[in-house]
Amino acid sequence: MLGIGPFKNKMTVNLLKTVEILFHRPNIGQDLLPLKVTNVSRVNAAKLLGVYLRHDLNFSQHVDAIVAICSRRFYLLAQLKKQGLGISSLDTLFKAIVLNKILNALIVYYGYLTEGQKGVLQRVLDRATSRGFTPYYYDLDVLAESAQYKLFRHSCQEGHCLSRLYTEKPRPPGTMQLRTRGHKFQLPINKYEFNKRNFIMRSLFNYL
Predict the structure, then answer these.
(1) Which residue in 34, 111, 153, 203 has the fewest CB atoms around it within 10 Å?
(2) pLDDT value of residue 71
(3) What are the start-end ranges of the H helices in the chain?
(4) In whole angstroms, what is the distance from residue 139 CA to residue 25 CA?
(5) Which residues contact 2 (CB under 8 A, 6 or more apart)?
């Protein structure tokens, strides 16, 4: 549920701005779903911190929203270019109002994107280069991989808010270490390929 309370910090939740969303398989029976929370609307999609979340973890709505926003911002960049703004300044603006929009929470939902959705976002980046808003070529896969690796390395450090999600693999005394591994954590048992799409699973399996 997006918003629950009251919290320990004495804040009271505004039920008019609170919704409930259940993440579940598409073929699950209605009798298996939990009862609705009183006075809270249950929805199939909700926006949280700028990201549209759906009950089936399909991010088509979020991709469409990004494309619409970037298109409007391209118009602004085009007008500034007509006024004679230099490529260096255009590139700075592009990174601030377009690239950052695409990068926002990208590593959270990137694993759930279809190839078609990735292609849509890549075309946004390609348009920026072809229209002269930036002198650089940006590859969506490279951007996502770089951001994921950076966050994973930070999250491995003790005290990071995500570090508690990792389980360190025990090593009996005297065990030989045959090679240096990418990390020291156990790989979760996973029977479904879909579950490997989230950030934690992707990182643990990709950086072994």
Answers:
(1) 34
(2) 96
(3) 60-82, 87-94, 100-103, 106-109, 115-130, 140-155, 199-206
(4) 32
(5) 18, 19, 20, 21, 46, 48
* C-alpha pair distances (Å), 108 with each of 41, 132, 176, 179: 25, 30, 36, 30
Instruction: Give the ranges where 131-195 is alpha helix by DSSP (H).
Output: 140-155
**Nearest Cα to 65, choosing from 73, 77, 56?**
73
- For residue 169, the model assigns a pLDDT of 82
- The single-letter code of the amino acid at 79 is Q
pLDDT in tens, 144-177: 999 999 999 999 998 999 999 998 888 777 666 6
Residues 6+ positions from 93 with CB-CB distance below 8 Å = 77, 80, 85, 133
Predicted TM-score (pTM) of this structure: 0.83
Determine the pLDDT at residue 4.
Answer: 46
Q: What's the rounded Cα separation, in Å, for the pair 17 and 53?
A: 16
Residues lower than pLDDT 70 in the chain: 1-9, 31, 174-180
Q: Which amino acid is at 33?
A: L
pLDDT attached to residue 178: 63
Per domain, the residue ranges of the chain are: 1-43, 60-144, 151-206
Count the helix, strand and coil residues of the chain and give each as a percent rounded to the nearest 5.
50, 5, 45
